[in-house]
Design goal:
By secondary structure, the chain is mainly alpha-helical. Helices cover about 45% and strands about 10% of the residues. The two termini are about 20 Å apart.
């Protein structure tokens, strides 16, 4: 039986998930909690799994290259070696705002994924996503 591999992004926890109302009274100024304690406390709250799933979906809907690389636990040096470029070039690419599609495609492939581009049409009632092929015709699967 063929099963889908679990995406590394499924374990991504957006920082917003851990927002707590913390007062600054003298009773709690001296105490610190480990990440694990904080995680366990927040995860036990009613509806935590649903909130986390919604936050994860929202966060991943508009994730930047830096966040994508970090969520896959890859360093800039590792990606640079995969692409045959310098670590500083990867840093510049992640901070850049206007990329060539070929550059973005190479970066995404360096992370082990394929780049897909969609044109999304939304008329207020329906949303239609149409795959766009740029450059060479994709090979038949």
């Amino acid at each position: 039986m063929l099963t889908a591999a679990k995406s590394p992004l499924e374990s991504f926890v957006p920082p917003e998930f851990y927002r707590l109302n913390i007062s600054t009274t003298s009773s709690n100024l001296g105490s610190t909690k480990s990440y694990r304690e904080l995680h366990d406390k927040v995860a036990k709250r009613s509806g935590a799994a649903e909130r986390l799933a919604a936050l994860r979906a929202d966060t991943l809907a508009e994730i930047g290259l830096y966040e994508l690389r970090r969520s896959l636990d890859r360093s800039q040096t590792e990606v640079a070696a995969e692409l045959g470029i310098s670590q500083s070039a990867v840093s510049q690419l992640e901070r850049g705002g206007d990329l060539l599609l070929s550059t973005l495609r190479n970066y995404i492939q360096g992370l082990g994924a394929d780049l897909q581009i969609l044109a999304v049409f939304d008329d207020g009632e329906n949303e239609t996503a149409i795959p766009i092929h740029v450059g060479a015709t994709p090979e038949a699967v």
